[in-house]
Design a protein that fits this description.
By secondary structure, this protein is of the alpha/beta class. It has ten helices and ten strands. Helix content is 38%, strand content 26%. A six-stranded mixed beta sheet has the order 6-7-8-3-9-10, sandwiched between helices. Strands 2-1-4-5 form a four-stranded antiparallel beta sheet, covered by helices on one side. Helix 3 packs parallel to helix 6. The longest helix is centred in the C-terminal third of the chain and has 16 residues.
Length: 234
């Protein structure tokens, strides 16, 4: 479904991604884990067209994405839930969700998709008229995911969905991620909570200093001593 081939990304003189190769098959949850500054967020931002690679290719269903704008990439079926949630704080929950459907014209289906989001996240229905900025961190994360789902993505990019959330909310968010995947959406998950990410994912890539260091089946990596010591607290 998605393939990165020898991707190189720079921020000025800083070589942020170094010959990154990564593949996601349709229907999978693939996780990308690593330390702060390893290149996880840059990978997602490059896939979604916010950053541009200097060299290498991004193929989505065999189609090159390199020349497309971020808005066109959304239309192709890739949605990005950014680190830090980035909800529109002075707009209502309902208005935020409507913004997720800005590329669409099918009003009847949008209404159905709103109902689906509210069934996934009942708290958003309870708070649909509240300003997004008044929500808790967990509710804002639910809103950010719900907003992305309104574009009807085939591939969902999730950047640190557990960041700053209480453990009980993290479990809830990860359960919902699994439900979204079961409903047919492929997921690329960037996470610092490596333990939760590996439990959730089918396959995993570990990125270190902008390079893919290890890749494999998520369950195998959970039992790998090097991975345990470096990322799972031994």
């Amino acid at each position: 479904m998605l393939e990165l081939q020898n991707l190189n990304v720079y921020y000025g003189a800083i070589h942020a991604l170094r010959n990154v190769n990564l593949k996601i098959n349709q229907g999978e949850i693939v996780t990308l884990i690593g330390a702060n500054g390893a290149g996880k967020t840059t990978t997602l931002r490059t896939i979604s067209g916010i950053e541009k690679a200097k060299t290498g290719k991004i193929l989505y269903n065999g189609q090159g994405l390199d020349s497309y704008s971020a808005s066109h990439i959304v239309k192709l079926g890739i949605s990005h839930v950014p680190e830090g949630r980035r909800v529109f704080s002075t707009m209502s929950v309902f208005e935020n969700l409507e913004m997720g459907a800005f590329t669409r014209n099918d009003k009847s289906q949008i209404k159905k998709d709103l109902e689906n989001v509210f069934s996934l996240f009942p708290r958003l229905l309870e708070r649909k008229d509240q300003y997004a900025g008044t929500l808790s961190g967990g509710e804002q994360q639910m809103l950010a995911i719900g907003r992305a789902l309104l574009s009807r993505p085939k591939l969902l990019l999730l950047d640190e969905p557990s960041m700053g959330l209480a453990p009980i909310i993290v479990k809830e968010i990860f359960a919902i991620i699994k439900d979204i995947n079961k409903n047919g959406t492929t997921i690329l998950l960037v996470e610092q909570n490596a333990n939760m990410a590996l439990q959730c994912a089918n396959r995993a890539y570990i990125i270190k200093n902008g390079e893919i260091d290890i890749e494999g089946d998520a369950k195998d990596l959970m039992n790998d001593e090097n991975v345990k010591n470096a990322y799972l607290g031994g």
